[in-house]
Amino acid sequence: MTTTAFITHRECWLHDMGTFHPECSDRLAAINDRLIAAGLDLYLSFYDAPQATPEQITRAHPAAYLEELMNSVPEHGIRHLDPDTAMNPETMKAALRSAGAGVLATDLVLKGEIENAFCAVRPPGHHAERARAMGFCFLNNVAIAACHALEAHGLERVAIVDFDVHHGNGTEDIFREDPRVMMASIFQHPFYPYSGADCTAAHMVNVPVPAGARGDTFRQIVSDVWIPALRNHNPQMIFISAGFDGHYEDDMGSLGLVESDYVWATQQVKALAADCGHKNIVSVLEGGHALSSLARSVVAHIKALADL
Q1: Among the options 9, 15, 61, 127, which is catalytic?
Q2: Contact 82, 129 (CB under 8 A)
Q3: What is the pTM for the complete model shown?
Q4: Distance between CA atoms of 5 and 159, rounded to whole angstroms?
């Protein structure tokens, strides 16, 4: 039996924010190509992402915000919501599939059909606040999945681990007042979106690091800060906002992580889940825009999830 699901949808390729925009469909193509070249496709269970339903989305976002997004879709061309976040006619199709991937992954894992899952989706989600699209994000995919675990499956405690180079301001915004959800993150600071360093809530374990920080700093934070806090929280399920733009080859940020750092972090999350008495992990793609390092890092992350 395969232990790891790979969830995606062709509609995620259709969202387009304009020529030369770094958040483009080439990212998913690079991941697919690397996955097949590595022979990993033989060891994974593949699923098409469904569309997330309004009921699932509105656990994390107000209904009026979802309606506003749907009404903002242009009939043709590209419409900017802010200087770096834009829609084309297919954007909401992609966004609904991206959110639906996390929901399906949560269902598969909690029903015992699979141990863990990776969602290869775009647009990403962790910058999407409760009622604001920004930072290439429209719907907060990982937040919608976490809410699904809490509300549809009745879990009492979950955790979201975020190792994207940027702070997941949207995830913090949605769960700042909800201690059922612990967020543990590392992010370059000061850096876009210029947040995360000032939240004092005990369940928000956000650790800023300076530009130039490398794997040794990352690993020390995971070992000394994340893991003790997460173990104390004792989550029944762990979500990963898997951004790979902290890689030293990715000029979207200025950190110095490499594939082995992502493998190590994935192994730490798996060990933590085991300590908490389960294997329930859902990982959702966030950033990562240098195509080669993105594809190599995702494949290394998936191999660690699948114990390959």
Answers
A1: 127
A2: no
A3: 0.98
A4: 20
